């Protein structure tokens, strides 16, 4: 993959990405915060309008069933999740609505979503007169849209949720302020360069929360929720047996999913996703490694290629 405009913009300037394929679900009703609090790993009941968080949905065995970007609005929550888990999240929450005053609405087609990411993302929003949320996952309403500080690639970033009929106008406004369109493939390379995992590609329904190293998704003092017993057991034990880490490997082509990672003569783990990084001139990958091999600087080999944990 050669250096490209969208890739370069995500790394050095600002790009926009179309995230409209992601799933979006509204949860309303008097019991919405209590119910969601009992189902996700982060603290929902303490959120105030304008705040948000990243969280996991777990099953009773503590395995991650989906991840969610959750926004606390004035009269409801917006659940923003991967395209592949939209129906799973809707069904999972709906299953636990018994005598609760909670109503779910699939808003995927009612809202579009554009991401603005890169080192100049905040300056670009300011240039079009938009307010810039300061805290991670915080959001504001402006111009008929919701602007949230949240990144899909690991670069500085924001998401803009708007009516589908307004999407073209938003794109034109962002491009006039200097934003370059970036493709999903370009965004994926930057995501892997930042070591940011994606559910369905790096996090699975067999994964335990602490294995992901995305501890900002977990509130360890919030009390009971589905799967909390397993999370607490891992916390009290002090470790998990494997960890998701970023690798840099010599070579110019992606590795096979599931490629074995070797530490000397020992099998250390396996690759979940990879891509060639034009900027680094090598392969970037995410892999689950046995904890003893997951420390930065650990020398490794994958498919005969030298590399290490970053």
Structure in words:
The longest helix has 10 residues, at 86-95. Strand 16 (299-302) and strand 17 (305-309) form a beta hairpin. The mean pLDDT is 97. By secondary structure, this protein is of the alpha+beta class. The radius of gyration is 20 Å and the shape is flat. Strands 8-9-10-7-1-11 form a six-stranded mixed beta sheet. The chain starts with a helix and ends with a strand. 20% of the residues lie in helices and 33% in strands. It has seven helices and 17 strands.
Give the radius of gyration: 20 Å
Amino- and carboxy-terminal Cα gap: 22 Å
Q: Which class of secondary structure composition applies to the elements? A: alpha+beta
Which series of helices and strands comes N to C?
HEEHEEEHEEHEEEHEHHEEEEEE
List the defining traits of the structure above.
6-stranded mixed sheet, alpha+beta, 6-stranded antiparallel β-barrel, 310 residues
Quick rundown:
This protein is α+β, with helices and mostly antiparallel strands and 310 residues long. The chain has helices spanning 5-12, 32-37, 86-95, 121-127, 167-176, 184-193, 228-237, and strands spanning 15-18, 23-28, 52-58, 64-72, 76-81, 103-106, 112-117, 139-142, 145-149, 157-162, 180-181, 242-249, 260-263, 266-277, 282-290, 299-302, 305-309.
């Amino acid at each position: 993959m050669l250096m490209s405009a969208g890739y370069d913009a995500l790394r050095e300037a600002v790009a926009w990405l179309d995230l409209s394929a992601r799933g979006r679900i509204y949860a309303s009703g008097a019991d919405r915060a209590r119910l969601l609090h009992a189902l996700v790993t982060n603290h929902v009941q303490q959120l105030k309008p304008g705040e948000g968080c990243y969280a996991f949905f777990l099953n009773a065995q503590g395995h991650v069933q989906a991840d969610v970007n959750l926004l606390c609005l004035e009269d409801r929550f917006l659940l923003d999740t991967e395209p592949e888990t939209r129906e799973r999240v809707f069904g999972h929450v709906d299953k636990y609505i018994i005598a609760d005053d909670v109503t779910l609405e699939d808003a995927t087609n009612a809202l579009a979503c554009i991401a603005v990411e890169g080192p100049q993302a905040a300056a670009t929003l300011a240039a079009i007169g938009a307010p810039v949320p300061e805290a991670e996952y915080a959001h504001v309403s402006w111009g008929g849209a919701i602007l949230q500080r949240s990144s899909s690639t690991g670069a500085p970033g924001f998401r803009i949720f708007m009516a589908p009929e307004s999407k073209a106008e938003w794109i034109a406004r962002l491009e006039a302020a200097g934003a370059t369109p970036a493709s999903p493939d370009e965004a994926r390379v930057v995501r892997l360069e930042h070591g940011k995992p994606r559910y369905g590609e790096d996090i699975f329904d067999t994964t335990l929360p602490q294995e992901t190293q995305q501890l900002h998704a977990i509130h360890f003092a919030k009390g009971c929720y589905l799967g909390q017993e397993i999370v607490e057991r891992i916390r009290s034990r002090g470790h998990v047996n494997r960890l998701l880490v970023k690798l840099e490997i010599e070579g110019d082509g992606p590795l096979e999913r599931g490629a074995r990672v070797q530490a000397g003569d020992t099998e250390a783990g396996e690759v979940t996703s990879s891509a060639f990084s034009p900027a680094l001139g090598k392969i970037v990958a995410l892999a689950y490694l046995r904890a003893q091999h997951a420390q930065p600087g650990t020398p490794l080999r994958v498919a005969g290629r030298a590399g290490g944990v970053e």
